[in-house]
Prior knowledge:
This protein is α/β, with parallel strands linked by helices. It is built from 22 helices and 39 strands.
Amino acid sequence: MPHREPQVPPQPFSRKSFLRGMAAVGVAPLLPALLPSAARAAPSGGPAFPLVRAGTAVDVFVDAADDPAVIRAAGDLQADVERVGGVRPRLLHALPERASLLVVVGTLGASPVVDRLVADRRLDVSGVKGRWEASVTQVVERPLPGVDRALIIAGSDRRGTIYGVYDTSERIGVSPWYWWADMPVERRDTVTVPTGPLKRYEPSVRYRGIFINDEQNLTTWSHRTQEPDKNIGPETYKRVFELLLRLKANYLWPAMHPYSDFFNKHRENPELADRYGIVVGSSHPEALLRNGVHEWEPWAKEHPGADGTLPVYDYTVNPAVISAYWRARARQNASYESSWTIGMRGLHDSALETKYATTVPEKVVVMNDIIADQRRILTEEVGTAAEPQIFIPYKEVLELYNAGVKVPEDVTLIWPDDNHGNMRQLPNDAERARPGGNGIYYHLSYWGRPRSYLWLDTTQLAKVWQELRRVYEHGVDRMWIFNVGDIKSIETGLSFSLDMAWDVDRWNADGANDVEAFVAEWAGRQFGRRYGLEIAAIRTEYYRLAAERRPEFIDRAMFSVVHHGDEAGRRLAAYDRLLERARTLGARLPEAYRDAYYELVEYPVHGAYLMNLKYYWADRNALAVRQGRGAGTNRFADLAEAAHTAEAAITKRYNTEVAGGKWDGIVNPYPSQIPKAPGRPAVTRIPRQDTSGLGVAAEGNETGALRPLSFSSYTRDRRFVDVFNTGFLPVDWTAEAAEPWVLLSTTGGSLTEQTRVWVEVDWARAPEGTHDVVVTVSGAGQRTEVPLRVVNDGERARRRVRGFVEAHGYVSIDAVHTERRIARGGARWRTVRGLGRRTAALEAVPSTAASVTDDLARRAPELRYRVRFAGTGTFPVTVFRLPSLDERGHRRLAVGLDDRPVTVLSGQAVATGNRGDAWARNVEEGVEKLTAQVTVTEPGEHVLRLFMVDAAITVDQIVIDTGGLPGSYLAPPESYHPVFNPAPAHAPGLDAPAV
Length: 995
């Protein structure tokens, strides 16, 4: 198990004085706002160390006997110094006879210079020496004969040294994303680094890496721009390896699909990986580094059966041929630092084939034989260097593992999520005690059921934080692999995930170091600290909207266009505001940053907005057909088509204009070889007719105004009435309210298509009590009365209420807005900011807490909400929980009212991998709706109570239907509360043309 320095107190320096000191020595504003994670810096009395000064760069020395990966990384430091200072240092392999300044790069035990400094106690390597991938950076005065001053970058092993080198690069202003996201490097005449010492201790997770998967766009781009004769080859992998090291990763599962070249096709690939210091493994269907998509068929043709038939990839049929197939690769790659996947699945991510083993127990026996065979091969061909070995119980293999597959104790168990960011199960006590340890395979991008998300980075970082924190608390610290699709578009999510893997304690749920703070710090390093907070706010809202529904999951009639002030329109209004915010900030950035900003911030927001927008207009078009609209029907069709065209245009801009066309082919929402994101929604147009007529549809009604518009003095609502033309010729119309305190946004005119009339109440003038009022819409010889139900309890009652207030036939609560939280039994509810469909959610922690199944009112952590009911009855209460799984346990919570008995609600605990069932619905919607009944025996204030039954349950929203809740995708806007929601916002629909 990797050992991190657990009790190293931070040295007495303040962030403000540190930044002031950096500014004083000319450090660029693009430098990290904070010290690197898992690092400690001590104050120094000496001046900052110059890397470039007066047009001269300080030489970089690395011993020729050091690891080739270290020597290569020192060359990158050369290039980085030149990027910043305009002067390239010399890279020396022999010490100079005389130098006033020198940079020394070396690995403990491989660099005599570094070892001598340690032996002479000139270099402090406590907490570094003997550790995994640790390093120290320190200025030493007169370190060597003839050298006055040196910056020492020393690692505990080769990657420790490499990370120390790249840490120095980032500190002088070279982003890890300088190439992959076109982050500019600010030029300066003087380039310096603080004196230090700075130590970077062991990572939280030993192996940290990515899986390039479903990579058709990356393949297209690579073929067009990097290697026209290949489909992802060495030139592309060089860029991938460098990015991984700059992000402090060390591990890769390479591209593996039919449209890509398999990794070992080009022998330079594994050689390059070793030269860079990257550990190469393979995914769950690729046992012992074999790519079945490309390699099995040629092997089978070379090893036909006695009757000339080709062997099938079935161990119960052809064990000898398959064993030899694996052995050949083990022998071929034995000299490289590799990770060896054991076990077996079918070819190309398909299920295990076992013709002569049909039952689960029989398949377990087969899998045990397979593992024994593979272990024998590794012992004979690779020897003791055959580590790590990993076993991935993915999909059907998890069932076999749980049924009794025996995985050797020194093999790392890699636990997969459900492909949608929810861990399926975590190790038990016995599995945590295994010397091989545990890892995870986690998706930030996915192809498959029930829907794919490959286009944009849309998983909330707070969700990633929550799940990674949970797995770490369960002892999973040996290996974290992230499925990142094509790499591009996952830049923020990947940076965060690898940052967590390096220092899992760096970011927390709520407070100064929450997830949004990560984005602010990360964006500040890329674009400058002055822009970090605003970019973080934009990205947080972007993730929140995606948590409601990923843009790749949008479909027809998902969001209501008639309820809750036009639920879909309100969502699009939020996107519209977000896009304007992103564009406004982008216009303020220096020109050099525009490409990077477009890639990382503006395109994702704009693309998600347009994907939602075209489906919004298509839904309005379909509704217009049902309503019998005339010209307006075609108007909505035009708007839907225009949004699709605009989406294609911004994608074309990304591929052909941004960074001079560097990313040609990298972005495509609709690649041909994978399940497509939502495409062009079908719309209906009607032929022109020289007629006119007046139609009315009030909020809450698809047609007409049968359902009254509801108004409450607590929520002070705004409701809409659509007035439309049933033909194509202009029609005059008027609207009139029966009471002067009913306000209309417009009272008439001439229309060809449609207009939306907003209705409000002047509460200062409205009489107390319940009133039925009408708004009359007239025109074209027609007259429609729109009923209003106005409930005014008066300003005094509004001020005196203490909890959430029922109105419009429901109560809607954001879960974080509690009256009281009660911790019990060592467990509690904590706020996780940036999680869920609103601003935050509540999680029952620690994730390792024991379940509470009886006497909940005295033993279980509790949430309390004060609710004011207007009437009595038995009402459904729905708890919106965020999906989480436990395939060996349960996902339960309990709900009750006042001191009445509670009802235990059981959530979906198993990932079925199906379409259309509860699990599929949960991952598509991002919530699971669990419903119980509560009985209100008398009007007035009551206490709604929620209890943890199982740990790591996360609650987002709560809705009580008291008889008037309309059907919609989202929860209704939050109810009035004097503290949490004293002034509920109006809910205007999208401000769009001709609406």
